[in-house]
Amino acid sequence: MAMTTYDWSLIGDNWRLLLDGLVVALQVSIVALVISLVAGLLLALMRLSKGPQRWIAAAYINIFRGVPALVSVIWVYFGVSLAFGINFTVFQAGVIALSLLYSAFLAEIFRSSLSAVPAALTEAGQALGMRRSRIFVSVVLPQATKIALPNIGSMFIGMVKDTSTFTVIGLLEVVRVTQNLVSTTFQPFVLYTAAAAIYVLAAFAIDFLFRALESSTTSPPAGSIARLLRSRERARIEEIAARHTEAS
After folding, report:
1. How far from the centroid of its chain's Cα atoms is residue 223's Cα?
2. pTM of the predicted structure, to 2 decimals
3. Which of 26, 75, 167, 178 is most buried per CB count within 10 Å?
4. Nearest one of 15, 14, 22 to 175, comparing CA atoms
5. Name one GO cellular component term (predicted).
């Protein structure tokens, strides 16, 4: 087939539908990321403990790191319904499937990050009379999060891409929208190229966002987010100073 037979105008005609699919993919991924962060942190703490929960966490992590996203969503959407009579929506099934998988990956990221925090920080907190829970929340966890942040960004990109396998349950994300358009236009090369471009652009945007977050956690803070926060802080200070001047 010659290049001239490809109808590239289909991308312009259907870009709203494709972007709607990306929005659905991002919505599923964002909710799943929040759940996975919480579950991953709990699993990491279990993995670092010395009780039997350590082996439970290890078994969970090793099982779900090896399960493909397609199998996971089939288990959730069809298997749970057949076994327990619980019917999830396609959105709920997608969130649960991603959370099961990526909480296992994030658990290992948090485990290594927590282990990388110098023990001297905990000892310093204890010397100041801080409780262990406060030391963890105020000292150890923020340091571990800074270490884990680049890998969390990579996991989020992976989540967005893995939503493409959820076409099997009818989730209207980018690939499902593309399949529907291909069935009526018979232009798979054009439309799947557009879908790939959307995923690539989304990956660049997510990478930029997490790099900005990473820069804002440095000392002193740097990057666009840190500059925005500093400008807002300066504006607030100037506003308070102006009010004080008027009052006096």
Report:
1. 21
2. 0.84
3. 178
4. 22
5. ATP-binding cassette (ABC) transporter complex
Give the tokens for residue 195: 């879908």
d(CA 70, CA 98): 10
Please state the rounded mean pLDDT for residues 192-215. 94
Rounded to whole angstroms, the Cα distance separating 130 from 124 reads 9
Kindly state the average pLDDT of the residues 9-34.
Answer: 96
How far is it, in rounded angstroms, from Cα 65 to Cα 40?
12
C-alpha–C-alpha distance, residues 103 and 42, integer Å: 9
| DSSP assignment letter at 5 | G
- Structural contact between residues 145 and 113, judged by C-beta atoms closer than 8 angstroms: yes
Whether the CB-CB separation of 18 and 178 falls below 8 Å is answered with yes
The residue to which tokens 């997510």 are assigned: 206
Give the span between the Cα atoms of 189 and 163, in whole angstroms: 20
pLDDT at 1 over 50: no
Q: Residue 81 and residue 93: Cα distance in Å, rounded?
A: 11
Closest CA to 32 of 163, 145, 198: 163
Contact 214, 205 (CB under 8 A): no
Please determine, for residue 27, whether its predicted confidence score (pLDDT) is greater than 60. yes
Short-list 38, 61, 43, CA closest to 53: 43
Residue owning tokens 């996975």? 36
Whether 98 and 28 have beta carbons less than 8 Å apart is answered as yes
